[in-house]
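Hi everyone, sorry if this is the wrong subforum. Our group has a chain we'd like a structural model of before ordering constructs, and none of us has done structure prediction before. Sequence below.
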Amino acid sequence: MKAKDWNSLIHEVPADRLLDVMAVLYLTNPSEDAVKVMSGLGGDDESSDVIDKVRLEYHDLFIGSESGAYIPPYESLIRERRMQGECSDQVREVFEREGFDPAELECEAHWKLMSAPDHLGFELAFLSVLLRSAELPDAERESLLAAARAFHDEHIATWAKEYGEQLLNTAKTVTYKTLGRLTMAVAEPGFLD
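Answer:
Right subforum, don't worry. Here is the predicted structure as tokens:
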């Protein structure tokens, strides 16, 4: 798919739903359904018999391995080249101020044990919660949307494109190459406009 097609795609799907799907793929080992959806988006139907390969790649990319494919999805690692940097502290402060607790998300146990809140899956899930909350009756729509835009601009847009490029170039499966492309598109300025 060409870059302009990816930008069109991300505006065809409600932003909160797209962000939820992406967060799940960063935070959990993928289901067969997720692999089928991502393969279809990537324009290459990976058959269900590759699920073990995709699940192994999840571990190699995000958890760590000796394969050389490990690219941890943390803002502070991309922006500051260290864990638990200022980015991590800033994200923690925003999450606390807005009442968002990443430990309440459905995700692999090891992510809940990590004390770094600046994991890309957590950031995408948080952004999705803000957008969904803005649609609720009696919600302070404009302030929630302003908070979502500010978080996107100050955090996701500052590093996720670079991370998405790394994921696209490192991944071997269509599932994670597609996630890399979507990550790059979501990181673009104006994604929430």
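For your construct planning: The chain has ten helices and no strands. The radius of gyration is 16 Å.
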